[in-house]
């Protein structure tokens, strides 16, 4: 019966509710009079039976005015009590006035107060009863996934209310770290200690844990996730508090737990004066603007009010994508998307002079280690000569600041990619040493989470496909940092450099890649298949180190490092080559690359980058094919 009523139109439902109130109000008044008279009817009231018909005539219009019938039953909240209270109170005042003016002497005056209480109970109670019935029908019609909410604070309670009103999840219990909240209940859901989770999951058949702690630090969030890892159950989380406050996300919009949440550190707030120093009111050019780091630099730059952003990119689609994104992110910031190569000196000079570029962030590079390892000439040309060409153009065009995005792989490199980035650093140090008016700054950091070629997207794809997850070596470790934090630190380091500086970003503690893979499997609610768990879901397979790959990355060549004003930025004191020696090597290297002589170019790289220890497996695929 109720199912059919729920299919009625909105106007029909409102009419039925009004009809229900028209019956409940006389019933409330009759109940009040009979209760006041001790359960007996006074015959003296027979001439005044019309008074029982009167309340709906003015109360229902009052309810209409207050919006009582516009409220959707399924989503009724406690505000309905205030609406009913206001309407019934006004009705009692009108009823009192009618009784006084009509001089109904036999009518017991105290029954008016009792009528107020009965009307509140009948009208308000009927709404909550109907709401419960509607929600119960919904829950039967649409089976929902059972979940446990971790966090019984305000965000957790709001999440519970949102989920109870939805059709996707059914909250079954709360878990919270605060002992004072244990044994409390919210809408029938009890709050439990974290130690109760294994039993709760079994009893409630919960298939997911929802983290409702958007304001806790990243460090605390990491601790919680690590404590939940052994449960082998998928975990989702609320968006961050900043997104909730800004309106970019809603409480019920749950996100998958990202590996950033497990590895991320508590970020150090950026210093606005450092972010703005090379950007605000200036023409800023970003090479490789469509790449992982380049695109994030563009986003950060746009937030610091540049006079113009020049987007320089070789790949057409990548340039189109960042240009479209920037048009939405900062439509008022002038921007110019330009195609070109960092090896094209004439094109670079034309652009820098035409737009009077003042700051250059050089993010263009080939960075995938195995790919560059087997294409060494292309890697040298793009990474080393591309940097030197762009720096020469910047110097000749009067650019004030040139910031190179370098890598930890430039430290004692064992691969061509790392060696080319170290050579890029050496060329900038050489230009500074020769008295350039352009301030050259290098910023060196490790892996960034989620960048193209990063292990994190690869692991996600492999887990989704059912495995195996491939790791090169059981002991391989890497430093990780989020892309936004890396971009902010690059901009701040670039503002601190005096020229020729090599800055090193504090990457935190290194992470074992095998542990990273294991955690990602566990956070997906799956079990790793190994000797201890032969019936597991996902196998972690070790494929062997790739050509040029190191077990451990470093950030410093020597031990000479100085602190800066920023706790996450260090200044490295490292060697550079005399200008004549470097120029001699660069000329020879240029000749070898032009001749496509990979073997000679490779040998020269080992001479110019003193600490380069090439991997024995390095092979130029073209030379290999030529035999």
From TrEMBL:
It holds the Pfam family CoA_binding_3. Keywords: Membrane, Transmembrane, Transmembrane helix. It comes from the Bacteria. Residues 284-573 form the Polysaccharide biosynthesis protein CapD-like domain. The keyword Cytoplasm does not apply. InterPro entries: NAD(P)-bd_dom_sf, Polysac_CapD-like, Polysaccharide_Synthase-Rel, SAM-dependent_MTases_sf. The chain crosses the membrane at residues 14-35, 47-68, 80-105, 111-130. Belongs to the polysaccharide synthase family. This is Nucleoside-diphosphate sugar epimerase.
